[in-house]
Amino acid sequence: MKRDVIAGKSAADAKTRLRGRAIVAGGKGAAARTMGPLGGIFSYTVSERYRPNNPCNDIVPLLCHSAIKFHLNLAACVLEISLVLLGSSPRQN
């Protein structure tokens, strides 16, 4: 399922109301947002003994573009703070 969503097989363009339109593109972000709740649903079924195992445990989680950008910004901030604490500021005016 994850590969199909990333490949764009879930893409759709549908008319919803009088002037409404739903455009679904798919991609890595959509797959990441889909697999999270699905894993939670399967965890519930395992805890209630409807299912013996959780097939979502073996899936490697995806990071969408905004999460990667957040991690890169966080790493840059940590580097800058550590340089300031060491006494050599990277922003010399």
Given as residue ranges, the uncertain stretches (5+ residues, pLDDT < 50) are none
Strand content: 5-15%
Residues in helices, as a percent range: 40-55%
**How many distinct helices?**
3
Account of the 3D structure:
There is one protein chain. The chain is mainly alpha-helical. It has 2 domains: 2-62, no CATH class; 64-93. It has helices at 2-7, 28-47, 65-86; strands at residues 12-15, 21-24. Strands 1-2 form a two-stranded antiparallel sheet. The radius of gyration is 21 Å and the shape is flat. The chain starts with a helix and ends in a 7-residue tail after the last helix. The mean pLDDT is 76.
Task: Offer a quick outline of the entry.
The chain is mainly alpha-helical and 93 residues long. It has helices spanning 2-7, 28-47, 65-86; strands at residues 12-15, 21-24. The chain has two domains: 2-62, no CATH class; 64-93.
